Amino acid sequence: MRAIVVEEFGGPEVLKIVTLPSPQPGANEVRIRVRAAAVNPTDVLLRSGEIARLLPNVPPPPYIPGMDAAGIIDAVGPGGDGRLKVGDEVIAVVSYLGPHKGAYAEQIVAPAASVVPVPKGSDLPAASTLLMNALTVRLGLDALALQPGQTVAVTGAAGAVGGYAIELAKADGLRVIADASPADRALVERLGADVIVERGDDLARRFREVAPGGVDAVIDAALLHEQILPAIRDGGGIVTVRGWSGPTERGIVAHPVLVSTGLTDTAKIDRLRQQVEDGQLTLRVAKVLPAAEVAEAHRLLEAGGVRGRLVLDFGA
Predict the structure, then answer these.
(1) Within 10 A of 183 (CB to CB), how many other CB atoms are there?
(2) What is the pLDDT, as a whole number, of residue 231?
(3) Model confidence at 127, in pLDDT bands (50, 70, 90)?
(4) Which of 170, 193, 202, 292 is most buried, taking the most CB atoms under 10 A from its CB?
(5) What's the pTM value of the predicted model, to 2 decimals?
(6) What is the mean pLDDT of residues 201-215?
(7) Largest separation between any pair of C-alpha atoms in the chain
(8) What phi, psi does 31 have (nearest 5°)?
(9) Is a pLDDT exceeding 90 seen at residue 316?
(10) What is the DSSP string of 17-42?
(11) What is the dotted CATH code of the domain comprising 2-130+283-313?
């Protein structure tokens, strides 16, 4: 099978296509013939070597990047419960630091617990964009444990994580204040934000203008960290996605979220699938590129301004 590997850290040019033996599923695992794999910022962190700074004890290269895959099950290991079978169209969220590595490959092996059916009505490229980002937000909201009617602010609201943050928070009954540039305002409004303020250097003050007592929490998809703390009420919370944990102020609690802690939480993963089917979550594909153009996909992502997710097509 073909796979995309990182043998040394560096720019997009270090991504190489190689031929590897087909992996074999073990107990309670399935093998997926990948048709689409989403390109996420965490893949860039891995390729560049930044991941080694953020996470302790990262094993050395080589790696196969990618955490999001959609495809068709072509083998089932022993010990399964019958929930998944050969021929099923599925999505999976996997760890590129795990024993089977990541999703940028024609075939991947994943724990059955990390695999659920493709949402009805969704094609495989769109479905591949769901789990890693939406699960990150779900874990963050669960950590905040806000009650319906409370207020959460979302930074980076037009991005993939920010978009899911708006929609999942609204599904939880929360009031959502979000940031947007003028070009993204209509998008953020469609995603369901109750109040939209203009993004920029003075974002904390703008959030305070519409929530004078401070918001109950922030989901910080824009990585503003200490800059956004003034928007939060005393004793509130902030969800961060790159491991930032403070220092904070005024009793604000930081919740650094690692999606790796939820990769085998089938109930959470399947609930996200159901929320797509119910129209509560929007799948957004920015562009589909052939897998051979993976370096270009990474360049586009690093250039910024991508709305939705870039997707690699492994179907050819």
Answers:
(1) 10
(2) 98
(3) very high
(4) 193
(5) 0.96
(6) 97
(7) 59
(8) -110, 135
(9) no
(10) EEE-PPP---TTEEEEEEEEEEE-HH
(11) 3.90.180.10
For 186-202, the pLDDT digits (tens) are 999 999 999 999 999 99
Buried b (16+ CB within 10 A) or exposed e, 225-260: beebbebbbeebbbbbbeebeeebeeebbbbbbebb
272's enclosing H/E stretch is helix 266-277
154 to each of 53, 241, 260, 277, 311, how far by Cα in Å? Answer: 26, 12, 22, 24, 24
How far is residue 205's CA from residue 38's CA, in Å, rounded to a whole number? 35
Compute how many other C-beta atoms are within 10 angstroms of the C-beta atom of residue 224: 20
Cβ atoms 181, 189 nearer than 8 A: no
- 62 cis-preceded (ω within 30 degrees of 0): yes
Instruction: Give the pLDDT mean for 214-234.
Output: 98
What pLDDT, on a 0 to 100 scale, did the predictor assign at position 55? Answer: 82
Per-residue b or e along 10-30, where b marks 16 or more CB atoms closer than 10 Å to that residue's CB: eebebbeeeeeeebebeeebb
> What is the amino acid identity at position 91?
I
Question: Alpha-carbon distance 154 to 166, whole Å?
Answer: 7
Count CB-CB contacts under 10 A for residue 262: 18
Q: Could you read off the pLDDT of 128-168 as tens digits, one per residue?
A: 999 999 999 999 999 999 999 999 999 999 999 999 999 99
CATH number of 133-259: 3.40.50.720
